[in-house]
């Protein structure tokens, strides 16, 4: 009997440590090898004997259910041989024990999970943990997601924490958020979403297709995706959208149950989509727009209806202006549309409107929004309207028992303000409005607007409420193309501000300033109202109104106070599940000239801070203490307080029940943290109670060897 001299593989070493460092994938908490496309990685193949010239050695990479060569889902690669589908293998070194091979995948290879088998003659070796995860590669110049700037890649691909900007244009604040793309099961959850998307192998090569599919799958509409949206104010059967501080718990829960997680609102959808895109290797950022239009009819107009006390009415509006809306920008070269539209692309997973029959949005080139090229795919008209619609105010009055509409103002510059994202490498807000829009009133803006209007037909100026029979046509001309403040003969101007800090439990003290610049004696009728509303613009309570007739000798100004007692709003504040904003609306009319002007401003309540006490540095696997301290400086008891704490790589997400915190009382919680990863880490904490829906804080610590 001849000894068996056929060549066999006795082992495969994926050289995980060296490969993942070179591929910037060493953060992923997973057994398998994770690498990026278009960049070489090495594998050490151990053999039963020395490799001879006549031996046949083949590496087979297979992706999907039934891999086939002719479909490109089975790649059969021989060292130093032809390049197969853009992949190639070279021999780095060989000895009597085996060989070291270098594998370079194609820079446009389909992204996903590949199984590696090694074939020698008729023997096939299936290594343990033989799955390789292949991601997009922003470090590779031939990959369409290539990003040249190192600091930007560090932020938009590798950073697993960040913050999302919310509030109102009047006071923007940040909510810290843990993206957590490296945590356990997160990459597997993203791979599950890729499989669930049923993208073809070719579509998996293209980040435009992948990001569009992910924008659909992060919401649960149509496809049982990750998150169920809920804006009803009732979250008993799930987690309130205010109670999340990161994406990790959400994606882990989804991966485990394969059922939609309850509940999300826009910043939660954006936080999760950001995690998914960064996890797959596409540079991505969360983008917040203040006073964002949700224009259901794509006519670039949002109607706001007020009663004769100046209070906003919910019932008539189909469209709405959200105090803020958060979506994402993903970075890529677009190969499916004409040149000049590469770079940031807006994608949005909040289910607002259907696109091609599904709740998905984007990728829409940010440049197309800026230039008014709203015919480009995908959903450019919708995104354009979100940042460029006009706001028209209508006063609804009963005349002979029927509702009549009177136009009391048009704002052409009020929508799409302070477009914000986190700065690269720093914890501060950076304003990116100029990436989405030309300066208000500039020649370029006007040209961009004319271009957009040639693709979107704005309707005539009439109110668009549900009561068609009572419509009063106010001239059927389309919008004037000159974007400027409505010119008033008297130079009438309104300002709204708070005169004292807006602390829950205190009176809300605000003022409406009426200014007039034309000389002369003027009589001004002013009505003002104060309401509580959700960030989506839905009114929760009417708190009070003011009505004054004032005489001004122009040019001059006068301040009219508006004061709301705590009893008027505290009950609503503690009974609603959402964070609410204070909306003040003012309508002024100059009797002598019939000049009318309407203005509204949303403000948020101000809260005492949470402070975090912990060392600035700590050693790997060495416990350290962290204290979270909160002093209730308000005049009200905070009921049913919960403290949420999470620190990626140092502390697992935990909720601490804190009961009620009386005025003047101090809450102190101590936790013990164990760092399991090196580098800059963060503790994120959030306090929630019936009265306050979220005080957040974050603090960094540096972990060393």
From TrEMBL:
It comes from the Eukaryota. Binds 1 Ca(2+) ion per subunit. This is protein-glutamine gamma-glutamyltransferase. Pfam families: Transglut_C, Transglut_core, Transglut_N. Residues 258-351 form the Transglutaminase-like domain. PANTHER family: PROTEIN-GLUTAMINE GAMMA-GLUTAMYLTRANSFERASE, PROTEIN-GLUTAMINE GAMMA-GLUTAMYLTRANSFERASE 4. GO terms for molecular function: metal ion binding; protein-glutamine gamma-glutamyltransferase activity. The keyword Flavoprotein does not apply. Its cofactor is Ca(2+). The active site is at 266, 325, 348. It comes from Loxia curvirostra (Red crossbill). Ca(2+) binds at residues 388, 390, 440, 445. Keywords: Acyltransferase, Calcium, Metal-binding, Transferase.
């Amino acid at each position: 009997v001849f000894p068996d001299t056929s060549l066999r593989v006795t082992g495969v070493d994926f050289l995980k440590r060296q490969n993942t460092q070179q591929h910037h994938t060493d953060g992923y908490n997973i057994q398998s090898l994770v690498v990026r496309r278009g960049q070489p990685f090495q594998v050490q193949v151990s053999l039963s004997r020395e490799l001879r010239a006549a031996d046949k050695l083949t590496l087979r990479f297979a992706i999907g259910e039934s891999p086939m060569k002719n479909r490109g889902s089975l790649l059969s690669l021989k060292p130093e041989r032809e390049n197969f589908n853009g992949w190639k293998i070279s021999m780095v070194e060989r000895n009597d024990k085996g060989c070291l091979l270098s594998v370079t995948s194609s820079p446009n290879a389909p992204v996903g999970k590949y199984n590696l088998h090694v074939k020698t003659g008729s023997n096939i070796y299936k290594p343990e943990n033989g799955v390789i995860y292949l991601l997009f590669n922003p470090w590779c110049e031939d990959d369409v997601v290539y990003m040249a700037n190192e600091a930007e890649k560090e932020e938009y691909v590798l950073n697993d924490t960040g913050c999302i900007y919310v509030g109102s244009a009047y006071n923007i604040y940040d909510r810290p958020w843990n993206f957590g793309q490296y945590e356990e099961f997160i990459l597997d959850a993203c791979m599950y979403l890729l499989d669930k998307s049923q993208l073809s192998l070719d579509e998996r090569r293209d980040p435009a297709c992948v990001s569009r599919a992910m924008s659909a799958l992060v919401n649960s509409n149509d496809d049982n995706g990750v998150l169920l949206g809920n804006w009803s104010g009732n979250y008993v059967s799930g987690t309130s959208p205010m109670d999340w501080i990161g994406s990790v718990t959400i994606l882990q829960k989804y991966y485990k149950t394969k059922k939609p997680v309850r509940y999300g609102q826009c910043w939660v959808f954006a936080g999760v989509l950001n995690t998914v895109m960064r996890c797959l290797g596409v540079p991505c950022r969360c983008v917040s727009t203040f006073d964002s239009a949700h224009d259901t009819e794509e006519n670039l107009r949002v109607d706001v209806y007020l009663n004769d006390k100046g209070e906003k009415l919910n019932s008539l509006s189909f469209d709405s202006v959200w105090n803020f809306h958060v979506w994402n920008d993903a970075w890529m070269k677009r190969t499916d549309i004409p040149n000049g539209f590469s770079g940031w692309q807006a994608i949005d997973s909040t289910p607002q409107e259907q696109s091609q029959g599904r709740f998905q949005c984007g990728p829409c080139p940010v440049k197309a929004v800026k230039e008014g090229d709203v015919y480009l795919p995908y959903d450019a008209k919708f995104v354009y309207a979100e940042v460029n619609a006009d706001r028209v105010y209508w006063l609804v009055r009963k005349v002979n028992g029927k509702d009549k509409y009177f136009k009391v103002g048009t704002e052409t510059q009020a929508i799409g303000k302070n477009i914000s994202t986190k700065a690269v490498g720093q914890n501060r807000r950076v304003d990116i409005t100029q990436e989405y829009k030309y300066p208000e009133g500039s020649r370029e803006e006007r040209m961009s607007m004319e271009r957009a209007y040639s693709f979107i037909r704005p309707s005539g100026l009439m109110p668009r409420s549900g009561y068609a029979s009572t419509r009063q046509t106010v001239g059927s001309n389309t919008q004037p193309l000159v974007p400027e403040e409505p010119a008033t003969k008297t130079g009438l101007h309104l300002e709204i501000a708070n005169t004292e800090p807006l602390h829950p439990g205190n009176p809300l003290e605000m003022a409406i300033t009426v200014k007039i610049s034309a000389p002369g004696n003027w009589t001004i009728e002013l009505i003002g109202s104060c309401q509580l509303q959700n960030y989506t613009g839905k009114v929760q309570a009417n708190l009070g109104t003011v009505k004054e007739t004032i005489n001004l000798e122009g040019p001059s100004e006068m301040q009219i106070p508006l004061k709301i007692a705590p009893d008027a709003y505290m009950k609503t504040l503690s009974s609603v599940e959402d964070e609410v904003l204070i909306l003040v609306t003012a309508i002024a009319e100059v009797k002598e000239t019939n000049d009318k002007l309407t203005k509204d401003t949303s403000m948020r309540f101000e809260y005492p801070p949470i402070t975090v006490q912990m060392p600035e540095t700590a050693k790997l696997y060495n416990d350290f203490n962290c204290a979270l301290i909160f002093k209730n400086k308000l005049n009200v008891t905070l009921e049913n307080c919960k403290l949420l704490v999470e620190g990626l790589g140092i502390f697992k997400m935990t909720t601490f029940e804190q009961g009620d915190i009386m005025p003047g009382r101090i809450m102190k919680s101590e936790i013990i943290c164990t760092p399991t990863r090196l580098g800059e880490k963060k503790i994120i904490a959030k306090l929630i109670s019936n009265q306050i829906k979220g005080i957040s804080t974050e603090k960094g610590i540096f972990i060393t060897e």
